Amino acid sequence: MRCAIPSARSPTPTARSPRSRRRASACAPRRRSSRSDAARSSARSPSARPGSSACSPPVTPGAGQTPCGFGYVSRAAASLIATHRAGIAELERLAGEAEAQHARLLAVERASRVDRQKIVAERRERRRVLERVAGEVRKSRKEIRVLRADEARLARLIERIGRILVESVPEPGDRHVTFSTLRGQLRLPVRGELTGRFGAPRGAAGTEAKGVFIRAPEGQAVRAIAGGKVVYADWMRGFGNLLIVDHGEAYLSVYANNESLLKQVGDAVAPGDSIATTGASGGNEESGLYFELRHLGRAFDPLRWVKLK
User: Is the model more confident about 199 or about 247?
Assistant: First the structure.
């Protein structure tokens, strides 16, 4: 059934018929139902609940009033700013730590550089020392070979002299005195300082000396320790100007490093005769006399046969 809607052009009714009243009563409940639905919709809407934070239609805020939503935005901005500041502080802390670590690394690098330079310098110095020591060792070995060769040459010479001598040579003027009876009565052939003893290392090579070295000024007289005959008078490598006297009974006296020789082979000498002058012809750094005593070609300590006083 339809409800009639009054028209603006229809005249105002003066009286209603029973049929018209029934139509009006049928339409009235519907209008009340529409208002009831609107009320229920309003009750279910969140904006109608007490204490709801929903915003009413925008209203221009007055003095002392905050627009709806500004508080939430302020809190979010403050949180974001605090986070940003914390990030900046953390970056500054990490930058400080990185700078401190970089400084430590630089200090370690400088210390390592200094240590490396020190190690390189020590290695260079050690290399120089080793090279110098190696050179000295080579030189010493060469000197040892030379000295051994010189000693072997002298030994062969004395051995050859021993084979040539058939009988002993008595002292001039006294044929009853033999050399073996003069032990402890002989005098050193030259005055000076005894710097090298029998059996001591000889020179830088360190070979054992077969005699003694008496340091004395150059040109001082060298005298025969006993009577005999000159069996060798010449220059020999390692011993310089060398003179050997045969005293009989296979005893020989050896005088080396002389500046000059005053006797020749075959000359007879008496005790105390000048036979040479001191020098440094044997390659020694000091001037003086190298003196040996031998029996049957074997060297022995001359100091056991001489009087040092």
Answer: 247
